[in-house]
Please model this.
Amino acid sequence: MRTIIQILLVIVAIGLTYLIYQGIQHPIDFEKTKTDRYDVTIQRLKDIRKAQLAYKDVYGRFTGDWDTLIHFVEYDSVRNVRKVGELTDSMIEAGLTERKALRMGLIIRDTIKNSVKESLFESSFKPKDLKYVPLSDTVAEFMLGSNVITTGSGIKVPVFEAKAHNNVILRGLDRQYVINLNEQSRLNEKYPGLKVGSLTETVNNAGNWE
Model:
């Protein structure tokens, strides 16, 4: 009888030890996975911002359409100024302006066109991946939008927004932890996920992680 009780106590002790370990390790594992997923999602949002800013430089506005943005990165071009030479102190003292120096061939300013993809991204970059939240086991798209906001001084400002909810980014993780994270964001009046830009205010195209 005593042996049976001892065995049962050992089993209970092992069970309690396991539960304590899980209670400590589970939130650590969740936080690590969350950080890993946030890191790759933030990088993708930075790529989206980079593409949107280049699009605005060319067309004067942002786009809220994925096909348009992806086509722009894949096939369009941006203008860059090639500068050779600078005005020296002696040129300035001689009364030369940049325009005169250009006419005389002393300096060179050429506008050249470069591929958007080659100018902004590495050769292995796939523009079609821009719209996807970088998850290994599911396919989910970022929500994308564009708008024009009128400021208090009457200035019209083009804006864009790309975002993904925690329910998407953290899909498959402990549901209660995700709910708690979303509730914390709600209480702090923050978006429960990751986003760059805003459709309702001018945030200088910043991400909510910055």
